[in-house]
């Protein structure tokens, strides 16, 4: 059983070391792949528009222009825009990613691969020593068995000779023709053989005792101790491999965290891309925009005298992609225009909303997740499309004030104006005569409510009375 156990643990240790060599080979190939990626990525890295060789992305797919090569850096119309600045940053981050692969490969080689290869050599030397010790113990026991076998053969030969001598002596005594002298010789020979047999028996007993001691030592001391050493060595090897795998996993995590940091930086920069700002640069510096009123480009905050209402609000164009911007607003009721500026000292408006044909709607806080919001739906300058501007004031009072001032000059018909207590016959809203606005009067409608959030409780009976006494629309 001890021999089988020794053979089993030797086979297990050999297979374990083979697995260690395969693991080291995997780490080595991983380092090579990462370095190959670094070399290929560095060779084919995209070139940002702000670097040498500006304007191209070189790679296996050829050369793709980012911008015309003959455009000087200061003449580039897209320079400084958030969108194309991010593209330059993305190109530089590609090189940083390649550097990460190289650094990771170096760390893997120095902290995992090389120490593992050193330990594997130690594992192989230790296993060889254990196998040689086990073979030595086994050979010593086999030598004892051989000595015992030889002593047993000698003893058996002596016993056979004693039996033959005894038989010959008995026959000689029974034969009357045998002389006394010959009988004496036969008797002496039988006695000598018996003495020799006794000596062989004593030698056999000594060999048997030696064999018993050797077996006891081999099976109960030498081999169990050797097997325990090999088991302990295998345990140490397993913990060493676990430690290397932990180091490898930590390196992988650091590598993934570094790459994730680059991705998060890219994600944050993508979120900071402001298409409106970029297009505003296009509008201001590149394209001469033909507006409904070309003189408005020369309008500054200081040139707007006695606005009916002014102040800062948040504005969001559209409902999905646009972000909220803090702007300064001036409502010129005589012109029925809402001017939007970057700030109180702006020299020209960012946008102008004509409320000649527009509608104002309050927005529930759940719509954008922002309180005190309302919406303006207005015509484009050529009246071909409708635009939406979502605004949010600092407080409910400010929102009510803005909506009240705007609604005085923006109702689509006299009935709607009258429902809010405003007269149609004024110099500012004479355009509200029914039929001029192009809106079709709505006498009734059906509203299907799918979900209501944070709706305050109210008196149903009071609401019915209010609806019954309100003007018919």
From TrEMBL:
Listed GO CC annotations: cytoplasm; plasma membrane; vesicle
Annotated PROSITE patterns: F_BAR (PS51741), PH_DOMAIN (PS50003)
Subcellular localization: Cytoplasm, Cytoskeleton
Domain PH: 306-411
Pfam families membership: PH
Signal peptide boundaries: none
Origin superkingdom: Eukaryota
Domain F-BAR: 1-278
Record key words, sorted: Coiled coil, Cytoplasm, Cytoskeleton, Phosphoprotein
InterPro entries recorded: AH/BAR_dom_sf (IPR027267), F_BAR_dom (IPR031160), PH-like_dom_sf (IPR011993), PH_domain (IPR001849)
One GO process term, biological-process aspect: actin filament polymerization
GO molecular function list: microtubule binding
SMART domains: PH (SM00233)
PANTHER family linked to this entry: NOSTRIN, ISOFORM H, PROLINE-SERINE-THREONINE PHOSPHATASE INTERACTING PROTEIN 1
Protein name per the record: PH domain-containing protein
